[in-house]
Amino acid sequence: MELINIVNDFADALKVVDSRMPIEGKFKPGIGPHTEDHSRDMAINYLKSIDSKSQYYSSACSMQYPVSREECDVVIPNEWAFELKLLRPFGDNDKEAEHWSTKILHPYYGCKSAAGDVLKLLDSGFKERKAIILFSYEHEIPKIDVAPTLKAFELILSEVHQIKFKPRIIAERRDLVHPVFQVLKVIGWELESK
Question: If 0-12 CB within 10 Å is exposed, 13-18 middle and 19+ buried, where does residue 140 land?
Fold first, then answer.
């Protein structure tokens, strides 16, 4: 399976889960307020329940890195190892989230940013193909355009760390149930080398 299929499957799964109006803590219903791990688990569990997808995703799970105690967000054995990162510029209260772009752009090895995850994944020892997948929630008419953050992320990978990756893939789903998290974008890059 190619990354474009995984990105679209993940977007479809999150959209379906959203339609079920899940609730995270005291936040408004919808997938948008959920944590990165809860969102991942709900999406993967949904994909495992669909007959046409279950065979491919049946073994998908988080898995310990071969060379450390940390866990990779999703491994499909003998196929893919990918890290997920939540890109959420606004909170449930419709106020800009503090340091939201730092979770993507912080360019150092060992940190919890998407850039740090890429470095960790490329040094992981996993034999599977590798990818980074971001998922973002926006207003119907974006109050903050995440495009500059995505471009900055690509520049950090390519210019600062000399990482080669395939072109960006984006899947967008609209009409989410949450009043702030109205549009979902799932963005993926296949990592080639550094």
Answer: exposed
pLDDT for 39-88, tens place per residue?
999 999 999 999 999 999 999 999 999 988 899 999 999 999 999 999 99
Report d(CA 110, CA 89) in Å as an integer: 23
Q: How far apart are CA 150 and CA 140, in angstroms?
A: 18
Gap between the terminal Cα atoms of the chain: 23
pTM, two decimal places:
0.95
Which amino acid is located at 126 in the chain?
F
Residue 31 C-beta-side C-alpha neighbours within 13 Å: 32
- Alpha carbons 13 and 10: distance in angstroms, whole number: 5
Rounded to whole angstroms, the Cα distance separating 38 from 41 reads: 5
